[in-house]
Amino acid sequence: MSEKFILEMRDISKSFPGVKALDGVSINVRPGSVHALMGENGAGKSTLMKCLFGIYKQDEGEVILEGKKVEFKNSKDALDNGISMIHQELHPVPHRSVMENIWLGRYPVKSIAGIKAVDHKKMYKDTHELMEELQMSIKPDTLMSKLSVSQTQAVEIAKAVSYRSKVIVMDEPTSSLTENEVAHLFKIINNLRKQGVAIIYISHKMEEILTISDEVTIMRDGKYVGTWESKELTTDLIIRKMVGRDLTNRFPTRENVPGEVVLKVQELTSSNPKSFKNVSFELKKGEILGVAGLVGAQRTEMVEALFGLRSTIGGITYLHGKPVKIKTPIDAKNHKIALLTEERRSTGIFPVLSIEDNMLVASIHNYIKRKTINSKQCVKVVKENIDVLRIKTPSHKTEIKNLSGGNQQKVIFSRWLLTDPDILILDEPTRGIDVGAKYEIYSIIAELAKKGKSIIMISSELPELLGMCDRIMVMCEGRVTGTVNSEEANQEIVMNYATQFAKQGGL
User: Which residue stretches, if any, does this entry annotate as coiled coil (predicted)?
Assistant: First the structure.
């Protein structure tokens, strides 16, 4: 690696009403290197990168790119100067094609009878060549709405590469990728590294950081902690520097005692022939039931059907021994079932509404008397939940979009806890959340199970399922392939079940 820095951010500070998000943070990035940026949710990582990318204007400090001071007025300015960013939360234009999304704002044009028009043929050709270069098998004319989350992530990566940037910021780029897709991303990163491109890599996945990065900068509470070469670090050391203390246990002690069966599902089958079929399982009172599987296993689709978000053509659901029909989320809520969705940004939060509004939206009827909302009671309940769940926020009136991912997740947890559910379905509850916030979420889940709440927990992180669940149900290509007690399970057993049909050549 060259000793010369391609990018220097010196003493960057940024404040918002009621909070100082960045306090004199510095980061120096070398060309042809992968520089990891780590810290708990709320540490200021994304804010720092938004200052770099022209989304925010820092209050103090300076940015030096290739030895010259720069001030980007907006993200286009940053892109024009060789800096691109893959955001954690994906916002594609869903009803336009892959190629239109990649070249948005810079379509190739041609002149027809003196009139300029978009050159779709060239755009298709350029996109096809880009996909071949990155070894991605996505057709340029496919609508974005037809792609999976992982494919959408891949298109965002392709778009960033298409700018031929000198610096690419990747914010949680593997949050929705399978192991094979992560390995492919690392190939792309290594090729970019050989071309002299600098990568700023933000992730909460310790193993990834130690595998792909050359250097690691750690932040805590909006301040710079330090920078180290990756080979000097271990997972425990990173955690200690991130949270400022030893975190001896990744998972809380489980004190729940599963009791009688509260939910029984028999032969549940989707109305979509390509989705889940003949799913049967039981959930006990006070039990944490994990659901494992690879991308395409139809886990999310199955629990959304249980919650009334998807239609089915077969199967019976029993609650407390009695058959019930759940056709809408209102039916599910009336049966004391709650669902914390997989995609926090798109299906969880109302970004422009306050923490208070987001927290009370599912239980507001409890605070209405004579057609009037009891505002004092609402504020009291919200503040109590902010304190109990340790939600970091300047005020209960703060717009939820201004919170970190972990704190947003806690608000959504509070929303459903206020409905007092008997069954809580959690779809990837810790995705994109740092190790400290994860432990707090785990503690909430363990406490709920101890109080007799029944939990269904979907996760793509096998250590999480093994550490948190009483039993793990495994799905592959829409079917349940096995259920194991967590004490008897290990990653190899679960993966064997998760790839069962693939080994057999399909269904």
Answer: none
Give pTM, 2 decimals.
Answer: 0.66
| Cα–Cα distance measured from residue 341 to residue 300, given in angstroms and rounded to the nearest whole number | 8
State the alpha helices, DSSP H only, in 226-313: 235-243, 299-306
Angle between the N-to-C axes of helices 120-133 and 149-162, in degrees from 0 to 180, rounded to the nearest 10: 100
Looking at residue 75, its amino acid is S
Three-state DSSP state, 26: strand
Place of tokens 């992982």: 150
Kindly report the backbone phi and psi dihedral angles of residue 411, in degrees, each rounded to the nearest multiple of 5, phi listed first: -65, -40
Whether residue 63 sits in one domain with residue 172: yes
Tens-digit pLDDT profile for residues 109-167: 998 888 899 999 999 999 999 999 888 889 999 999 988 777 888 898 899 889 989 99
Instruction: Please list the residues that pair with 288 across neighbouring strands.
Output: 455
Identity of residue 245: R
User: Which residue range forms the structural domain that includes residue 489?
Assistant: 249-336+421-433+449-507
Q: What is residue 296's predicted lDDT score, i.e. its pLDDT?
A: 77
Cβ-contact 453, 286 below 8 angstroms? yes
Q: Is residue 89 part of a domain?
A: no
C-alpha torsion 5→227→1→68, nearest 10: 0
Pair 178, 277 in one domain: no
pLDDT tens digits, one per residue of 363-395 = 999 999 888 999 999 999 999 999 888 888 889
Pairing status of strand 454-458 against strand 423-427: parallel
> In terms of domains, do 253 and 233 share one?
no
- Per the structure block, which two tokens stand in for 215? 């250097």
Question: Distance between CA 456 and CA 472 in Å, rounded?
Answer: 10
What is the secondary structure of 442-495 as a DSSP string?
HHHHHHHHHTT-EEEEE-S-HHHHHHH-SEEEEEETTEEEEEEETTT--HHHHH
Same domain, 175 and 75: yes
Q: Which two tokens stand for residue 43?
A: 């540490």
Domain termination residue (choose one: 243, 263, 295): 243
Q: Are strands 34-38 and 215-220 parallel, antiparallel or unpaired?
A: parallel
Q: Which two three-digit tokens encode residue 66?
A: 């290739």
Quote the number of domains for the chain: 3
Which CATH number covers residue 269?
3.40.50.300
Nearest to 415 by CA among 361, 458, 349, 335: 361
Q: Using CA atoms, how far apart are residues 176 and 174, in angstroms rounded to an integer?
A: 5
**Parallel, antiparallel, or unpaired for β 423-427 and 337-340?**
parallel
Q: How many residues are recorded in the chain?
A: 507
Name the token pair of 246: 């030893």
The torsion angles phi and psi of 222, rounded to 5 degrees, stand at 80, 10
* Residue closest to 85 by CA, chosen among 54, 42, 107, 61: 54
> What tokens does 113 get?
């009878």
Strands (E), 230-382: 261-270, 279-284, 288-292, 312-319, 322-324, 337-340, 368-369, 372-373
